[in-house]
Design goal:
The structure holds two protein chains of two kinds. Chain A is 25% helix and 30% strand. By secondary structure, chain A is an alpha/beta fold. In chain A, strands 10-9-8-7-11-12-15 form a seven-stranded mixed beta sheet, with helices on both faces. In chain A, helix 6 packs parallel to helix 7. The chains are: A alpha/beta, B alpha/beta.
Chain lengths: 285, 340
């Protein structure tokens, strides 16, 4: 049982605070949800860690696992960005401010922030998988946490400039000298001032230093597949490369069996794994 | 405590229990036996030398069960189930062992399943040991046995006209209150029966290094061979007492969110919204089923996740036999791991 006597399977009542499209093609929509009850908010933020995910619920449609795209300091709300692909996410896309929605979470382990203290962070994202990395960047970039970490490098690739998420923050981050940003798109576009090419190639070109550094990779499977060897070639050890996995999920509690990966469940023991951990697990992805 | 239970006294005893408990025991249903609540005029068929078709896991994890109710304005409420105190009678030790294995998933410290927990707390399990080996069973091969006592409240041993009842909990002792204590001679006699039953179970395959062999041959064409005739019907997982995968779906008209048994042998089980499927064919799905039972359970709780009940062998429509699959796995190459 959780706060308010809800069972593990009963979603927390939330409502939409803001809803807006994230990409110019309207395939990505961001929802900022706020809690109906203060106790739920307190319980959420007491447990929350960047890299965790929640199950968003629409009664009659089902539940969908989405990474949390906001940092705790931003305020009393939780942000998600959903791609319109299935029945639940298309229902999520129809939500507007004020609508009711259910949420279970935070679930999963999140990023091992304690182990990363004092290290340089290389954050590598691709497409809409950037959401939890956005939460991570926001968390690290905040003045209360910034001194806990070393140099911050951000590498983010999307297919087109229109699919780039969180454009306002990127615009602001380009202005700061606090982090090194490399943005990329797959094919050339007019007025594009940054890299053109795939993320693994950009990484080889940028060549972030592996000294006292941790690389965090989150992107589509094909990007991850080619990014991990690129990082290894640059000298990052498997213990210092992290990625966040995804599989079909139902319960989010390590019971329904769906996201089973070797002896672990991605929902409960993941979604964040180091490459060293992944190397010891079967290639069942 | 050890009691003696005359076989002719059994029907009356079961009816006595009915006053305070729901009594579930195997009864005839079509061509099979099935765990059902005992009625006032109930007939018992506990002496069939085989298991029920549907394992008693269904008494703790029903095939379909409501988890959440939707309220009128998009809200959610916990589902409530009326669960009466129960006695599950004459379940076989392999199935009782399976329930204990499932506890390790459903009763984890952080995420304890409230529905499973309530059913477990309100249930007394009285097992019937298997004094004759059943067809297709291989409990001793996987480290359990026909009189395996793990996680039971009481166990019956058939000694002809009567049963020896061994109780392992106070709740079970109360159930057999008033019955004569068993003498030492009878206990010795029962031990002999139990030992003989254990010895009669054939060794179906060698388990030594089986985990390493399956683990290290993840990409072997062994999996193609053993899955070739599989139809993907899922009966092996559906009737497996240790399989616990479930799906969660919304029943819109009932305004409920329910969980239903699911199977890793189905294509849509792991199919993602993007179209990607980590286990696209029956080869990967067969590998998942066997690896979960004979590799992953061992990593998680150091127990084989198969209790050797034999259902997957008995009910497979194309005669796929997990024993033969694992015998074939024994000839796979492997390296001894020095990790531990």
């Amino acid at each position: 049982m959780r706060a308010n006597g809800r069972s593990l399977y009963t979603p927390t009542p939330m409502h939409v605070l803001r809803a807006y499209y994230e990409s110019t093609d309207r395939s990505l929509k961001t929802l900022e949800l706020s809690f109906d009850y203060t106790e739920d908010s307190q319980a959420f933020f007491a447990a929350f860690n960047p890299g965790q995910f929640c199950l968003l619920s629409i009664a009659g449609k089902g539940e969908s696992a989405l990474g949390v795209a906001s940092a705790a300091w931003e305020g009393d709300f939780v942000r998600f960005t959903a791609q319109n692909v299935g029945s639940v996410t298309s229902a999520l896309h129809k939500l507007t401010a004020g609508d009711a929605v259910g949420m279970r979470g935070p679930l999963g382990n999140g990023f091992p922030m304690d182990g990363w203290q004092g290290k340089n962070l290389v954050i590598i994202g691709g497409g809409c998988a950037f959401s939890t990395l956005y939460a991570l960047t926001k968390h690290v970039h905040h003045e209360n946490h910034r001194d806990d970490y070393g140099k911050l490098t951000l590498i983010y690739g999307t297919r087109t400039s229109g699919l780039c998420m969180y454009k306002h923050d990127f615009a602001a981050w380009h202005e700061t000298d606090d982090m090194e940003i490399h943005q990329a798109i797959d094919v050339p576009e007019e007025n594009w001032l940054h890299h053109v090419g795939y993320v693994p190639d950009v990484i080889r070109q940028v060549a972030p230093s592996p000294d006292n550094a941790v690389a965090v990779v989150c992107g589509p499977p094909i990007m991850t597949k080619f990014t991990l060897p690129a990082l290894t070639d640059l000298g990052f050890t498997p213990e210092n490369i992290f990625t966040s996995l995804e599989k079909r999920m139902k319960c989010g509690l390590g019971k329904c069996g769906r996201c089973n990966l070797g002896p672990t469940y991605i929902c409960k023991d993941g979604p964040v794994y180091s490459l060293a951990q992944l190397n010891a697990l079967p290639a069942d992805l | 405590m050890n009691f003696i239970l005359e076989k002719q006294a059994l029907p009356d005893l079961l009816q006595t229990w009915r006053a305070n408990f729901d009594v579930y025991l195997p009864q005839n249903l079509e061509r099979f036996t099935h765990f059902m609540p005992l009625a006032a005029e109930g007939v018992t068929v506990i002496n069939e030398p085989h298991n029920t078709r549907i394992p008693p896991k269904a008494l703790f994890l029903p095939m379909t069960e409501t988890l959440v109710k939707f309220t009128r304005f998009g809200g959610y409420e916990n589902a409530k189930h009326e669960i009466e105190p129960r006695i599950v009678f004459a379940l076989r030790p392999c199935d009782a062992q399976a329930v204990q294995l499932l506890d390790t998933s459903f009763l984890q410290v952080k995420y304890s399943d409230p529905f499973w927990l309530e059913r477990r707390e309100k249930t007394i399990t009285v097992a019937l040991g298997c004094h004759e080996p059943c067809d297709n069973g291989f409990c001793t091969t996987v480290g359990y046995g026909p009189f395996n006592k793990a996680d039971l409240d009481a166990m019956l041993t058939d000694l002809g006209d009567f049963y020896l009842v061994e109780t392992f909990s106070e709740a079970a002792e109360t159930c057999f209150n008033g019955f004569a204590n068993a003498s030492e001679t009878i206990c010795v006699q029962a031990l002999e029966v139990q030992q003989r039953a254990h010895d009669q179970m054939p060794v179906a395959f060698e388990t030594e290094n089986l985990k390493e062999k399956l683990e290290q041959n993840f990409s072997s064409n062994y999996w193609d061979k053993v899955s070739l005739s599989c139809l993907g019907c899922g009966v092996c997982t559906f009737l497996c007492p240790t399989c616990f995968c479930f799906d969660i779906v919304d029943e819109t008209q009932r305004r409920e969110r329910v969980r239903n048994w699911d199977s890793c042998m189905f294509r849509t089980y792991s199919l993602e919204a993007s179209g990607h499927n980590p286990r696209p064919s029956r080869v990967e799905r067969t590998r998942q089923r066997l690896s979960h039972k004979y590799v992953y359970w061992l990593d998680q709780v150091n127990q084989i996740g198969c209790t050797g009940c034999g259902r997957c062998v008995r009910y497979c429509p194309v005669g796929l036999d997990i024993r033969s699959m694992l015998r074939q796995a024994q000839s796979l190459p492997f390296e001894v791991s020095h990790a531990s």
